[in-house]
Amino acid sequence: MNIFNRDQFDVAVAEWTNCCADYQKIQSLIPPNYVFTFDSEQVTWLKNYNDYNEFCAEIGVFNGQLVAILCPMDANGQKLIVDAFPYSILSELDGDLRLVETEQYKVIKNAVLSKDLQRIDYDSDTYFPISNKPMLEQDVALEAIESWRNDSMTWFYRECSEFKGSRIFRKFYVPSEDLIASKPGLYKIVCSFGLKFSQVYQRMLPTLIFISFYHDLQNSGSIDSTANTYDWSQPCPPLCPFNYNN
User: Fold this and answer.
1) Which listed residue, 35, 106, 126, 134, has the most CB atoms within 10 A of its CB?
2) Nearest Cα to 169, choosing from 202, 206, 203, 144?
3) DSSP state for residue 242 in the 8-state scheme
C-alpha cells in the first residue's frame, strides 16, 4: 500500500498548489486518459479511520506525478490528524474499464375470471427500481468521463490563463459511501476525473467518478438496482464546506 507520512503529505499538497497556475506543468502531470486506482487495503484503512459521512481526497504532486491522497475526517467533519496517508498515483489503466449498471423491474399482473371462467378483468403494472444508495446513471458517467478526456486541457488552459489557477481544485470532498464497500468482494476502485456542468455556478466543474470492482457484481441481496459507478465528489474550490486550508 502506498503511504505518505505527514511531511511527505504536506510537500505533495504544496507542490500541486504551486503547479496550478502553470498550464504546461499541468499538461505533463495529467494525461486526460489516466486514472487513480485504490486497492482494498487502502479502502479498509479509510473505513477504519473515517468517522464522518464524507472523506477528503487531497490532490498532490510527488516525484513528478499527480497523486490522490485519502484523508479521513473526524465525527465533526474536520480532517483527522494521522501519521500515514494512503495515496494513488495517476496512471494509465492496465485494461478496459467496464461500467456496469443493472436494473431489475417488477411486473405485477392481475386477472379476474368469472365463475364460468370468462376473463372479466386484467391489468398489468410495472414498478421501476428504487435504489437505497446514491447512484449515477451510466450514461451520465460516460458523458462526464468523455468530457474530461476531450475538454479538460481546454478547461485547464482557461483556468490558468484567466484566473491564474485560483479556481482549480486542490481537494475533493466525497461521501464515504463512494469508497467504502457495500458488500463483500471489493478488490479495487478506479477513480476517474470527469467534467460536469454546474447549474449553480453556471460553468463546468471537475468531479471524481468512483468505479468499484467486485469479484462478483451480481445482485444477491434485496437491493433492486445495482451499479458499480458513483459520482458524488465536490471539488474545493469552489465547493469548500469548511475552511479552505482544513
Assistant:
1) 35
2) 206
3) S
CA torsion 46-75-193-69 (nearest 10°) is: -50
Nearest to 238 by CA among 173, 169, 174: 169
Burial 47-68 (b: 16+ CB within 10 A, else e): eebbebebbbbbbbbbeeebbb
Taking each continuous run of H as one helix and of E as one strand, the counts in the chain are 4, 14
Confirm if 90 and 30 have CB atoms less than 8 A apart.
yes
Averaged over successive runs of 10 residues, the pLDDT of the chain (246 residues) comes to 92 96 96 91 90 92 96 90 93 70 54 51 57 54 86 97 96 79 72 90 91 62 42 82 58
Q: What is the dihedral of CA 65, 240, 227, 85, to 10 degrees?
A: 40
Of residues 210, 204, 140, the one with CA closest to residue 168: 204
How far apart are alpha carbons 17 and 36 in whole angstroms? 19
